[in-house]
Amino acid sequence: VITDPYFDEIGLKWPKVEADIVSISHDHPDHNNAGAVTGATYTAEGPGEYEIKGVAFTGVPSWHDDKEGAERGRNVIYTFNIEGVRICHLGDLGQAQLTDSQLEEIGDVDVVLIPVGGVFTIAAAEAAKVVAQLEPKIIIPMHYQIPELKVTLDPVENFLKEMGKEAITPVPKLSVASDKLPEETQVVVLERV
Question: For residues 124 and 114, what is the distance between their CA atoms, to the nearest angstrom?
Answer without folding.
Answer: 10
